[in-house]
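Box 3.1 A note on notation
Throughout this textbook, protein chains are presented in two layers. The first layer is the amino acid sequence; the second is a token string describing backbone geometry. Keep the layers aligned when reading.
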Amino acid sequence: MINRTIKILSLIIILNFLLSACENADTKVTHNQVNENPTKSEVAMDHQKNQDQAIRNFMLQLEDNIVKVDSKGFKGMLDQHGVYSITYFEDGRDPNVVLHLYGNEIRDDLVLANSTKTGIGVSPMVASNAELENMPVHSNEWLKNLSFNVDWHINDENLIQSKLDDIIKLCEKMVLMNNEYIPQVFQLKDNIFVFTKSNVSPEPYYSFTGRWVIFEKIDNEYKLRAIMEFQ
């Protein structure tokens, strides 16, 4: 009788041990499954990181084409809508110049000009590769509601000229987010992105100068829309 009781107790202990092991295994599987399924927030963060890096790569490629005076590479960063050259003189010493060019009109020396107007001679961005590789990309709800209210896809120099003051004011508004003279990118409404290294000096005399690049994300690619110089 005693032996039988001992055997029964032994079986109960073994069964409890096996049940406990199974529960632990189930817990580990569930825990691993949770870890393998990222949250929406994590997915969004990964997407933003990938986009930010793609933007930095785009600007590094643009800078490389400019430094090498690689007109073919530069043209490859445009699409069928072409690019605007905008020169703005804050002191009014010269007329502001708005010029539109298609890819086949880009000169080999990267001077943006046609038979009647001379725009920007595209030059390096006054930023090192290290700065471009680590530059901030600003993206928030306030910025994503900002727009130049311009259709960059059409060739209408007069329209852009008429909106030039509004374009400058919007650029100033962006820069005043931090007013740091560093390379940085702002993400605006409708997949429009703006690169600049510029700041505002209100005193003792107002000054707002710098280089700007406007580009657009289309089907996971970035295409130039405008290069601007404020002098």
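The helical segments are 2-36, 40-67, 71-75, 129-134, 157-162, 164-175. The first strand starts at residue 83 and ends at 88.
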